[in-house]
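FORM 12-B: Structure-to-Sequence Request
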């Protein structure tokens, strides 16, 4: 049965917005679905409760089955419906469509009926599902997680909403006042947050796209002068010079229990770089020697070895790969694409035994290309709390990455098999030409800032770094420290005890409001597993958290099955031989 709460209010608001030419034809929905154990019993997964909220954060309607959900949609032609994690909920939608005879097409036309298209990237990211339910009812399902990249629980707390994330027993499918309130809170929290960001003009599919288009509008005609179209070859080849943030443990302190580690973070590192440091613009100029321009890109044939007493600084793979392997030495002469800033670090920390500069490009640079944009959002960040502060932080940190967007990104076509959805690769025939050099320069400057801090605290004191933070047994010079100044390091905390196993994998304790708390950072270990490990081992967590550490059955991995997606309980194992330097 479908249970409406505020249907008339939505209809009146939609009519009023249409008269004022306000695009408020969107809603937020959420599915509650059966768990893995039920799938094993029933042979498929299903929706057992769903709800929809309005843009004003009021509940609209709830129901029990996906059939009821789609029956409800016939009244909402032209609406965008947001799900917070479309990869999960969208699996149920596409299963329903394919099981009910809908045809997948590349693009939805106005006259289409019983057809759908979707944008699912080759890396598994779901963005949008467009449907033609009938010729008179076309609806888009959009992933709000791409605009608000946080859990619903965190959104509710950070935005300071009255409604907060509730808890239920996911194995109990009883529908009562509490379970309905639970699902309503989920959609109300997301709806309120989306309303806040849309009021700020953030209305693209992703927060990065929204930031990019906001900045582009702010720049006007100067944008294309600053960031002209570069050749396909340069955008493809020199993507290998685009390397991620520096993250590593000092071998001197790896896997040891430490005391009083100070954790320093850079205040708004990327905004600082974009506002205050020289960045490239315009067309590249071929050059024949280094240091002709303030920023340069090189293609080199090179061999080198790490200097004694130094830490590796150069990621082996460029292109923002998830491979966090650093060069210790080259096996032979290797072809490498690298920025001038990263090459300076290479000279500082490695002995270069051979180098041949095959290509060299210089760029004009300027300070303040992003000043107006950064100042606008930074002022909002420092002078506000709650929603406005969260939105400002998102806009400050999301812009630069859009310039590093992959020029080609294959997508996936969903097809129905006996065991659920499968995906066929669709080759990207287009080419997205964003101005890559500015993204390379920003990440390269980040490497320089972190390296400066590591050198300042000293090799023996340095414990760990990750993108914009440095953890040390010592300290940093006074002129590098400020609790609020843009680009300076602030002392985030002093860890009572710590143990750093490898990159992005460590455990520590610190005092929070006078109470000693324990924390685990580990890729692939969800919060339930962390809480279980801390509750189980307490102060002994430092002894057991190492290679061989495991948590059984609490890590949930998504799996496509008949009807939709289930979260399969699996084990977390901290294995040696992953993310190591070579």
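FORM 12-B RESPONSE
SEQUENCE OUT:
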């Amino acid at each position: 049965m479908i249970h409406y709460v505020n249907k008339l209010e939505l209809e009146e608001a939609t009519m009023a917005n249409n008269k004022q030419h306000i695009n408020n034809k969107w809603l937020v929905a959420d599915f509650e679905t059966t768990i893995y154990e039920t799938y094993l019993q029933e042979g498929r997964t299903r929706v057992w409760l769903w709800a929809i909220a309005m843009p004003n954060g009021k509940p609209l309607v709830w129901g029990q089955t996906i059939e009821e959900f789609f029956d409800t949609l016939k009244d909402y032609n032209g609406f965008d419906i947001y799900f917070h994690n479309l990869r999960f909920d969208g699996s149920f939608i596409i299963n329903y469509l394919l099981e009910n005879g809908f045809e997948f097409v590349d693009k939805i036309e106005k006259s289409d009926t019983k057809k759908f298209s979707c944008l699912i990237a080759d890396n598994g990211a779901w963005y949008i599902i467009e449907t033609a339910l009938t010729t008179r009812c076309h609806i888009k399902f959009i992933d709000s997680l791409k605009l608000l990249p946080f859990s619903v629980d965190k959104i509710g707390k950070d935005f300071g909403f009255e409604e907060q994330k509730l808890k239920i027993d996911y194995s109990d499918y009883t529908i009562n006042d509490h379970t309905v309130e639970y699902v309503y809170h989920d959609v109300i929290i997301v709806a309120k947050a989306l309303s806040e960001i849309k009021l700020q003009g953030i209305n693209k599919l992703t927060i990065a796209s929204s930031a990019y288009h906001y900045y582009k509008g702010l720049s006007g005609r100067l944008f294309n002068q600053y960031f002209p179209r570069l050749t396909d070859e340069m955008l493809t080849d020199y993507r290998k010079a685009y390397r991620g943030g520096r993250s590593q443990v000092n071998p001197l302190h790896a896997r040891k229990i430490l005391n009083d580690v100070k954790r320093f973070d850079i205040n708004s590192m990327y905004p600082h770089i974009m506002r205050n440091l020289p960045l490239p613009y315009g067309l590249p100029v071929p050059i024949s020697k280094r240091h002709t321009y303030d920023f340069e890109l090189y293609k080199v044939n090179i061999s080198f070895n790490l200097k004694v007493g130094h830490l590796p600084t150069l990621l082996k793979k460029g292109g923002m790969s998830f491979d966090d392997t650093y060069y210790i030495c080259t096996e032979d002469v290797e072809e490498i694409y690298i920025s001038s800033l990263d090459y300076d670090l290479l000279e500082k920390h490695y002995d270069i035994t051979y180098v041949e500069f095959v290509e060299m490009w210089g760029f004009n640079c300027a300070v303040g290309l992003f000043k107006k944009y950064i100042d606008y959002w930074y002022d909002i960040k420092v002078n506000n709390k709650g929603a406005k502060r969260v939105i400002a932080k998102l806009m400050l940190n999301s812009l630069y990455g859009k310039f590093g967007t992959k020029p080609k990104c294959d997508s996936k076509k969903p097809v129905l098999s006996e065991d659920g959805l499968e995906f066929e690769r669709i080759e990207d025939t287009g080419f997205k030409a964003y101005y890559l050099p500015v993204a390379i320069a920003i990440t390269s400057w980040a490497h320089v800032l972190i390296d400066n801090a590591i050198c300042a605290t000293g090799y023996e004191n340095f414990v760990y770094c990750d993108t914009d933070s440095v953890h040390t047994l010592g300290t940093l010079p006074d002129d590098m420290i400020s609790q609020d100044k843009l680009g300076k390091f602030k002392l985030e905390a002093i860890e009572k005890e710590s143990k750093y196993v490898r990159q992005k994998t460590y455990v520590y304790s610190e005092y929070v409001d006078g109470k000693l708390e324990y924390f685990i950072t580990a890729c692939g270990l969800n919060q339930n597993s962390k809480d279980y490990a801390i509750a189980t081992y307490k102060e002994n967590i430092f002894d057991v958290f190492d290679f061989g550490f495991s948590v059984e059955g609490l890590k949930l991995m998504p799996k496509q099955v008949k009807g939709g997606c289930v979260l399969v309980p699996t084990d977390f194992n901290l294995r040696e031989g992953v993310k190591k330097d070579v």
